[in-house]
Structures are given as structure tokens and as C-alpha cells.
Design a protein that fits this description.
It is a single chain. With 133 residues, the protein is mainly β. Helices cover 3% and strands 41% of the residues. The protein has one helix and ten strands, in the order αββββββββββ. The strands form two sheets. The protein has a six-stranded antiparallel beta sheet, with no helix packed on it. Strands 4-9-6-7 form a four-stranded antiparallel beta sheet, with no helix packed on it. β2 and β3 form a beta hairpin. The longest helix is centred in the N-terminal third of the chain and has 4 residues. The relative contact order is 0.26.
Length: 133
């Protein structure tokens, strides 16, 4: 059993920050469970383009408001607490937070924590063997 808190992650190398977001990675590939879990904050007034060409991501908004745009269709959906979006077709999208948005993100395959978005907003597929106990 793994029990971990956000406070334990804060300030470590599992606490990844960019100009428009911050992601605290609670579960990573090294845990060997087939997915990763992150608490992510998207900063108010920013706009971020993401395209997880190598991952499926589910995002559950716990606080804040904004919108997400599907860049293939132009559809725009509101984001608010209780909203979930699933990027089940590797959807290229843009997120525009009106207020800081906090969300829980789940990735499959799991991220290692070393990924960096490229110019298209894509995480490369980085693999890692699970840690052994």
C-alpha cells in the first residue's frame, strides 16, 4: 500500500512547474500500477495548448472555472468543479482558466515525471521499469 500526501510532494522533483501550470505527481510509472495521478493547478488568465499524442488523460476539476477547446472541432466546453473531461482520442486541446483551476489528472500509460511538453504540447512516451520493493 502506498499512502502519500500533497504536502510530501510539494517542493520535490515530483512537483513540476511551468509558466501556466503546476503539477504535483502523486503516482508515477515507477509505482508499476499502469497509470499516473497528478494534482494540477492551471493558472488564471493563461492559455495552454496540450496534445497527449502518446497518452490518454482524464481530468476531474475540483475547483476553479474556465473552458476547454477541442482544436479539431472548435467546440468549447465550460470547466467548473465537478466537470470531467476525457481525452480518449488523443485530442489536441486548449485550456483557458478564468480563475485558478485545480484538477486531478490520470494518465495512461503513466508518466515518469521526466517528460517535458514539446512545441506541440506533446509529452514524449518515456518508459520506466517499476521500482521493486
Amino acid at each position: 500500500m502506498i499512502v502519500r500526501t500533497i504536502d510530501e510532494i510539494t517542493g520535490t522533483d515530483a512537483d513540476v512547474q511551468a509558466e501556466s501550470w503546476r503539477s504535483k505527481r502523486l503516482v508515477l510509472a515507477k509505482e508499476g500500477v499502469g497509470f499516473s495521478v497528478h494534482e494540477t493547478t492551471l493558472y488564471a488568465g493563461t492559455e495552454s495548448t496540450f496534445w497527449y499524442a502518446n497518452h490518454v488523460e482524464a481530468v476531474f476539476v475540483t475547483s476553479g472555472e474556465g473552458e476547454i477547446e477541442d482544436l479539431a472541432t472548435g467546440e468549447v466546453h465550460p470547466l467548473a468543479p465537478g466537470t470531467l473531461y476525457l481525452l480518449d482520442d488523443h485530442d489536441k486541446h486548449k485550456v483557458r482558466p478564468r480563475t485558478d483551476i485545480t484538477c486531478v489528472c490520470v494518465f495512461n500509460p503513466p508518466v515518469t515525471g521526466r517528460e517535458v511538453h514539446d512545441e506541440d504540447g506533446v509529452y514524449p512516451l518515456v518508459t520506466e521499469e517499476p521500482a521493486t520493493a
